């Protein structure tokens, strides 16, 4: 179990580092959006590339921070129901949800998005909008983001099982409320 908990710690560190780095892209997106608005309304000119760059930045934040969000236990859940259960039952519900819902969904999206990315990369797909950007970087975000989410799912599963087997005092980074 020690080896698995070390693996969990490495996954946690990876998603924490990526999350802390990537959430700065929100600021970059705001600056790009503001500059684009000033140029468009102040100079009466614009480029689709600026709009697409904003889309790429927000996509990067959403997709690359999914594992970070899961690590921090800030994902969507039904706390009003699960919060009434003991930590052990909460951990069991998490194990069930990770195995039967999160893994199949995340792995399916990751696997199905890879060929779309590869096709885009190999064909040098460009935006159909005038002045638009290349598309493969945005399409690469999908399998990478779902890989990070799946990896964090592995980490959370390890932590829940360690808690359930008595190898850890807490099931995850943050506990669900008991109120």
UniProtKB/TrEMBL annotation:
- Keyword Secreted appears in the UniProt entry: no
**A single Pfam family, by name?**
DctQ
Membrane-spanning ranges: 21-41, 53-71, 92-116, 136-158
Can you give the residue ranges of the Tripartite ATP-independent periplasmic transporters DctQ component domain?
Answer: 30-161
Keyword terms: Cell inner membrane, Cell membrane, Membrane, Transmembrane, Transmembrane helix, Transport
Q: Would you say which domain of life the source belongs to?
A: Bacteria
> Where does the record say this protein resides?
Cell inner membrane
Q: Which PANTHER family match?
A: 2,3-DIKETO-L-GULONATE TRAP TRANSPORTER SMALL PERMEASE PROTEIN YIAM, SLL1102 PROTEIN
Instruction: Report what the protein is called.
Output: TRAP transporter small permease protein
Q: What's the main place this protein lives?
A: membrane
- Give the InterPro entries listed for this entry: DctQ (IPR055348), TRAP_DctQ (IPR007387)
